[in-house]
Amino acid sequence: MLSFGTKQGVLFTIVGFLFWSIGIASLGGCSNGVETDERTGLLESETQSVFPLWVLYFIQTLAENLFVWIYLLIIGLVASFFSMFTVAELLKAILLTFAFSLISNLGMFGIGMIFASGSIRFKRMGQWATILQALLLMLSNVYFPVYNAFQEVIPYVGGIEIVRQIFLGHGVSLSKLMLFIVVNVIWFLLGILIFNYCIKKSAKTVHLTHFKLEKGDIYFNV
Known about the structure:
The chain has helices spanning 7-40, 42-46, 53-79, 87-121, 126-139, 157-167, 174-205; strands at 211-214, 217-220. It has a two-stranded antiparallel sheet. Helix 1 runs antiparallel to helix 3. The chain is mainly α. The protein contains seven helices and two strands; from the N terminus they run αααααααββ. It has one domain (7-220). The longest helix has 35 residues, at 87-121. Strand 1 and strand 2 (217-220) form a beta hairpin. The protein starts with 6 loop residues before the first helix and ends with a strand. Mean pLDDT is 81; it is low at 210-222.
């Protein structure tokens, strides 16, 4: 059994942390973006776009993730000169994580959309998103292998396991890959459905144009 105190174990922990970090960036990017636009009054104008509102936030999240990966790549290259890992090892870890996180970020974006839906009706949902981020770090397989089947519902858990198996030379299990994809597609679609429903309901009952300034914050006028 692999010890996470070994060199390979440390590398596996890095892989887990990379998945978690980029996943949190996707979750926080869309949920915080909606909350910010809501408070500044931009949300109403964005709903008039020819594109669905979730598409705008999805593109925005992709752009933000691209910059995050560029930073990680640069940091990885620099770190290789001061760590126990070679450039090839760190590049392999970063590139594999990047490839599979393209799938897991769909699920994390979906969860972010669910929190964004809460922001449409309630203010300051960001603090709950922060709590969720900490819970995901503790409950997922960032530091240790999967020990409970229920962990698989977390979008990036399957990706971490797949990348670790590749490093061990076991290849990619088709069943694990399919489960990984299905979990993320479900979260992605669920998030979009809930977000679209809340936008339509809010437009009818809350009226996005009715804001008032109170003690430095913008609230819905309900």
